[in-house]
Every structure is written in structure tokens, then in C-alpha cells.
Amino acid sequence: MKKRKLVSLLMSGALVFGLLAGCGGGTQTNNETPDAQNSQAGGNEGGAFEISMSIASEPQTIDPALNSAVDGAIMINHMFEGLMRWEDSGAETKGSNGTCTNAVLGYGQAESYDKVANEDGTVTYTFHLRDGIKWSDGKDVTAQDFVFSWQRLVNPETAADYSYMIDSVVNANEIMNGEKDPSELGVKAVDDKTFEVTITSDLPYFTEICAFPATFPVREDVVSNAQWTYSPDTYISNGAYKMTIRETNSQIVMEPNEYYYGVDSLGPQKITFKLMDDQNAMLNGFKTGELDFIESVPVDEVAGLLASGEMKVVDYIGTYYVCYQTQKAPFDDPKVRQAFTLAVDRNYIVSEITQTGQVEAGGYVPAGVYDAAGATGDDFRTTGGDYYDPYKESYEANCEKARELLAEAGYPNGEGFPVVEYLYNTDDNHKAVAEALQNMWQTELGVTVTLTNQEWGTFLQTRKDGDYSIARNGWIADYNDPMTFLDMWLTGGGNNDAQYSNPEYDAKIQEAKGTSDAATRMQLMHEAEDILLEQDWVVNPLYFYTQSYMLASDVQGMYYCPLGYFFFDHCTQG
Prior knowledge:
D-Maltodextrin-Binding Protein, domain 2, alpha+beta, four-stranded mixed sheet
């Protein structure tokens, strides 16, 4: 999942996550947004506990099927609920110093499920929905709502980046390719309380997919309104909270959904997400008490906040990387991509710029993702080894090789190489990384790279459209399997921002998806990563994430999972 700051999921099923790590703004309202709500959130009227935070600026979308960013997912997780959900385990998250606990996979709208292996190799899950589950307008949630939502996700007309999330469901690929109708997806409502899904092979992470926002239910009559996400009157949800205020570029406010089955156990009576990208304003808001939680602070404040203990750092399985537009000259040449990749000093970036425990990336799939083919205790990264670090000879040797490659591509000493642009979303941390890369490429390759920043939503769309040469990127896994990092690069994939296409790579991934043998799956995925990084040089991994945050000392009960999701639904003031 896309992470605007620097963006997986660890341990499938019901295993507790040994968590790794994910002011007040002005009240300006963009009146161009349809049905924008212009009221302001109040304080703690009547002593009710309220919590306010800033995790990012205006989200690109808060439609569960269309969202592909962590900030949007955090909001959606509070207002919607899938068949499964992440819940508080009560076990403290490593590195949180008692401020945060681990998430564990549990039942959400479903109260149980049955799993049956069929003679043809398919597997059928039958989910039994809870009694009394309702939408925020009081109408019943039914199995048909899930049927509609899953069909909507794979419908090409929806154009969901995450349509491939359920490509294991029978007929999903044919529907996404326009060969079959969405009604032929392998899902059905046996009755109002029973939702049945048939998948093509046994996936160890399927129940985790059922806790992923793209698979959350939406109601057909609601989403028929194209602007449904912009107003509390039309943003009908089925989760613990409901939207009560939406002010574009200012705030999104939510309050308990009185029809939610667990409403009596909720903590905050109001959760306010301030929409900001100014890190100085975020930090000032935290210091003045206007914000209770932030993730981003100015780069020059990090060391002091870590030393004081005010900033916490937890593990976070994901990769921060550079993305090349592989269909656009000069980065349509693998030699150019390899040269730019080898000329990067990753150790300098993590030791001198980010400084919050990140580890320089030795591959694309990060540490912490299980590898069934490895020795006991080994993960996918350990088994696969390092592609870049520690620089097989030395950084100097890598730079010499990079210059040779650039010369072979027709640009000796950078001569004749066009001025290219590096695109990043507005953020001081991203800017610092961008400036370091710009200097490395200028110094080592003799090329000129200009820097351009854009507001988050615009940036995502620009990158998705392929209207760039080099761009900042990041990915947090959506379940505990290397596939969540690798299938995004399939030809035509909704999150394939590199516009990459290689039939050999596609074949490896599809073969891995089609087998239930763990060792075979992992071997195929290792071979696919070899193609991605050693043959085609599609992306340039810089480092593996950590998640930093600041939480008000009087707030208790926050929990977290390595998808980057923070949960505030059971927070209390103490």
C-alpha cells in the first residue's frame, strides 16, 4: 500500500503481531468539493473524550475500493469493517514504550467461517455474518452487500488499483480482462447472513485479505452517487464510526456509529483527522495540545525528539524506493536504470538523512516477510540475499560500473543526457532524500536532475498516469507474503506506476499464484524478484521502513499493525 511519508503485514491468521513498524490546521474549505461540510469540530463538550490527529493532507479518496494509500486506509478502517478485522491483542508493541499495543486478526462482520477444499483444487470459504450488523443509517448489512462490493472491485469500470487483491477468486482475472461479466465472480449470497467465496488455490493469507479495506462492503444505492464520499449525508458506512464533518483540505471528523454492534465498547466520542502537510505546523499543534497524535516532524527536530523519548519508533515492514518510468526515454533503457540505481549510497541516506533506524535496502521485498523455502527462522530477504548491500565490492566500484553503463547507453560522462525530473510529494523528509539523490547522480554520473514536489493527491495521480521520469515511491505489504510486493508489477497492474511490462515476469507471478505448494511458490517469487532487480532494474530500493510517531501522554489504548494502521477506536484518557 502506498505510503506518503516513507510505505506490510506480518504474521498471518490469528497470530499476534510483534509489531514492527506506520495544530490545528487552518479551516479553509475548498468549495469546489461537492457537498463539502463547513461546520467546525468542537472541543470536549460535556467532558466527553475526543482525540485529534494529523497523519497527512487531503486524502486522494476514502472510497474503500479506490483507496490505495495508508492515510486513507486508517480513516476507512475506523468507519468501515470487513469480514475480518484487526483488533487489540493487549500485548505491547516493541519500541512503543508502553504507548501502543499489537494488533491481532479477528472476526469483523463475520462471526465465523468454514473452509472446504474442493476436488478441482479450488477452495471455498463460507462466512457467517453476525446478527444485528447495520449500516450507519440503520439498514441491515447483508451478504449481498459483500457480493456487490467484491464484484464492484474487479469490475473494469470501477478502475480500482486494488482489483488484483482478489484475483484469486474464481473468474476474477477474466472479469478484469473484460472477458466475463462481474456477475460471474466466484462469490454468492447463500442467504442474507451467508457469504460464500471460491478461490482458485489455497492462499495462506486469504483471511488477511478479508480485513483489507478494498474488500470492505459498500452499499449499491449509496455508491451510485459519484460524489458519495464528500458528505456525511451520503458517506454511509458499517464500521465503528461514522463521518460527521468533511471539510476539504481542513479536517475529517467522525463520531460513534450508534448502529455498530460494538458501539458500547468504543472510546473517543469524536475522532478528528486534521488534513495537513506542514510538518512544523503538525509539531506545533502537538506541542500546544491541539493534536494528540502525529507521524511527521521536521527533519532537524528528529534527533532531539528521539533523545527526549517524545518520539517513538516501531518496526514497519515496507520499502522506500525510487520508481523509474520504464516506457519513457531515457529510462526505457535498463542500462540507464541500472546506472542510476548503482550510483546511490543507501548507507548515507539512512545514517545521515532519515536517522530513525531505517535499514538500507538489499532488495525490494523487505525483511520480516516469511519464506517457506528458507531454513527455520529465515525470511524472504535472508533467503534471497542482498542485491545492492553491502555493495558487492564497494560504493566506489558501483559508481564506476554505473558510469560504464551510462556510456554504453550513449551518455559518456553524462554527455548528451537530457535533464530529467525527480518527483516527490510535499514533505521535508522526502525533500531531503531527493536532494541527496540529486547530488549523487550529478556527482557520480554527471547528469542534471531537477526536483519537483506536488500535493499528495496530485502526486499520486501524476505518478499513476506515468507523467514523470523518476519518482519517489514506497510500499507497505497488505498481508504476510512476498506476493504483496511482487504482483503489483504485473503488466497493466493498478499500482504498477513504473508502467513495467515483461511477459517472463508475468508468467512467474501467475505460476506462483496458481500453486499451493509453499516451496514452489517462494522459489518462483525469488526468480521474479531477480528479474525485477537484476535483469530489468525496474525500481531502486533505498531503505526498509520504520514507523515513528508522537502520542499525547494522557492518551491510552492505541493499537497498531505493520500495515501502517494505527487504531484509535478504544483510546481513553488517563
